[in-house]
């Protein structure tokens, strides 16, 4: 909420209103540019190696501007901390933030991170990333990166769209992300069959020896070993007051109850084995959910393995085929330690291990490594990226003119498919169903709007809706399109939590359910319920509307891209072009009586027209973040459950679109069997 | 080239010459003749010629579904041969295997009858739909085995092909009755099993057949009567319909509300013109598939297709 320009509080003058408008326009511009940037980064997976002088200076200039702006704003806030804009937040008082912003603004890359806190603008985050990356060119592992990560995490669920894929290698990390308008335009023309240039990623670059991390030590040690201080984030303490916690505590992958964190203990066999810096990097980025989505995670992991293999040397008196697997297992363990693997990653690892074992024994180290890296490259292309493109192409033919396609969450393959169908000239409407706390659907909506799904709402627009509206929306849908995390041998689909509900509703309404899944995510196991092996996300995510302690309230106020989008308001008209408010007063002036009480969520926080965003944010800030669950850790009988996945029975899925063709759920065992031979 | 050999013409003449030949077989036969008349120097050229011919056939035929199964098999065969042999060798091999396939096509139907016959038992009442060669083959075989059964046959509008089936069965000495398509629900309680042929069997395990098959399947399921589909394996098509309107034969003008002047409407004539000739029966309504590869569950068809096209 600190995003609101200087408070419209008690005595807002005409001056401040004008300033607010100006500020808003600037922010919108910033946001548009950022979106473009991110899109470009996503297209540029693995080609971020070459630094361009001109572009670099551009990014630097922007970063400096950002810092100045942040500092200015911090001063403004410090001048009137009681004015209300940032009051009552879970994540640090406005004064504290201003401090962070102003003090850090002297300190180079750190300032970029600080500016996010004081300004909380998504544009700032991107700029910060650019600045951090730019400054990181000297030092291979730069602490600023972690500062950025830390800040990204703060707004993770709110609005931050990070590139789904890591830069191609550790070297690429140290250079700035490419920003080029012309290239962005070119990247916009998506060619079918374009699988991205991964060869750049799987390069045989030798790493200079980086700081070594020993599995079995706390994550703090790993960070502090490099920069001298543990990474911290601001969280809400048990008493409801903002507190500073180590990153490790704020990212408990398996937190399940008061004070319980089930970090798997490193087995004795892998303790004190060095972990490759690239593995460490992607491990952390996965833990902070910066890299999420099973395709992205699998690709990131395989690329990191390629780098790790490139740096591997077989010890004397050992054979590569037997020892390399031993070398990889602590790396794998480290990754699992950061965040549980998804099925696709597990399958990829199993494949890699069998490839290592199958290597001819008479190869030299370099030959063997070269072969493996090449195979990894091919695997990524054939089984993941090209597969996803083939699926998009094949699935797009299933979409007909006039269709209403309902989708849930955000799957990269589904997004591809919809965009390809659109490029084929199909005119159809999309209903993007989403749910908290992750709100991933916004990423999809944003991408779709950028891809041109913003015309006639009734014809080819996008409707964004919460999952609670599912039963009424399903009646409109003619097809349901779902991404899958994995398919099991009995035809069960593993997917983002909530998917089973969507499939069930579709089944009840006789709407065909199309699932998309690359075959590398098919698994021989059988799973009968969603409890076993489910990954539990941060329980605190359930306390807040955003999912992240201290972060901003959910809503277009925090997300200009959504605010700019035209909402479908069923209250007036199914395909309404203009947003509507249920309770405008709640956002204009006084908080409504029912929302003011503790525990009540502010009403109308779901949709805001762009013009009222600032007022809305301020009003929400006044309502505060009182949450009945905020002290849940103090109550030993209270547990919060935030599972990530669920399973969908095979009879709810009409067809699976794979790169091998369209198959029924009953044919999964055949694919598993045939692919083995 | 079109002057030398017209594939569509050849295809049609094949179908006319022999009423027992089915569309996919005729398609393969025509493609074999085409390859014979061509002098392709590279495998790619051969492939392209065959592809173009397949597209022409599909466009020319009013029902491309079963025909495309034959085309797919042939194209797959080309790509399989091209991996191992020289152009001339594979051309010869292609002609040889194609000719063998056409000549042996009759045997596919016999084998279906062989696998299906045990399902027909004495004193049974069977409901069949429309006219289907493979169903007639099975019933004829059952008669030969001295099985005593009765058959209800749907009239199967608009071409009334059920009447033809009735005439043939009468010849065989099978007691039969023709029922209205609308009487399916009425008669279902008296029926022991339902037998239908197939225009095409699709990857989902469902089948595409003469209009009316779907409602027959729904009624049979509601009455808990077994519903068996008979199909030669060359009718397995690489299609995955999600609904009735997701077939290659779908036209948006079918049963669309059109503007007509009340005076001119000849509803009788409109019927055949604006109605679809095929429908899609989803796998959950089919009890078993009786094929020349054996008796399989609907999902087994998908498995067979994957096995065939994956390697």
From TrEMBL, chain A:
**Record has Protein biosynthesis as a keyword:** yes
Region described as Disordered: spans on this chain: 1-120, 582-611
List keywords of the entry alphabetically: Cytoplasm, Initiation factor, Protein biosynthesis
Q: Where is the composition biased (Gly residues)?
A: 81-95
Where in the sequence does UniProt note compositional bias of the Basic and acidic residues kind? 21-40, 51-64
Recorded protein name is Translation initiation factor eIF2B subunit delta
Principal cellular location given in the protein's record: cytoplasm
One Pfam family, short name? IF-2B
The record's subunit annotation is: Component of the translation initiation factor 2B (eIF2B) complex which is a heterodecamer of two sets of five different subunits: alpha, beta, gamma, delta and epsilon. Subunits alpha, beta and delta comprise a regulatory subcomplex and subunits epsilon and gamma comprise a catalytic subcomplex. Within the complex, the hexameric regulatory complex resides at the center, with the two heterodimeric catalytic subcomplexes bound on opposite sides.
Q: Which InterPro entries match?
A: IF-2B-related (IPR000649), IF_2B-like_C (IPR042529), NagB/RpiA_transferase-like (IPR037171)
TrEMBL record, chain B:
Q: What does the UniProt entry say about where the protein is found?
A: Cytoplasm, Cytosol
Q: Which UniProt keywords apply?
A: Cytoplasm, Initiation factor, Protein biosynthesis
Q: Which GO terms describe its molecular function?
A: guanyl-nucleotide exchange factor activity; translation initiation factor activity
A GO-annotated cellular component? cytosol
Q: Which InterPro entries match?
A: eIF2B_alpha/beta/delta, elF-2B_alpha_N, IF-2B-related, IF_2B-like_C, NagB/RpiA_transferase-like
Q: Which SUPFAM superfamilies match?
A: NagB/RpiA/CoA transferase-like (SSF100950)
| Gene3D superfamilies in UniProt | Translation initiation factor eif-2b, domain 2, Translation initiation factor eIF-2B, N-terminal domain
Principal location class: cytoplasm
Oligomeric and partner information: Component of the translation initiation factor 2B (eIF2B) complex which is a heterodecamer of two sets of five different subunits: alpha, beta, gamma, delta and epsilon. Subunits alpha, beta and delta comprise a regulatory subcomplex and subunits epsilon and gamma comprise a catalytic subcomplex. Within the complex, the hexameric regulatory complex resides at the center, with the two heterodimeric catalytic subcomplexes bound on opposite sides.
Which family does the similarity line name?
Belongs to the eIF-2B alpha/beta/delta subunits family.
**Name the UniProt record assigns to this protein:** Translation initiation factor eIF2B subunit alpha
Species of the source: Coemansia javaensis
Q: Which gene encodes it?
A: GCN3
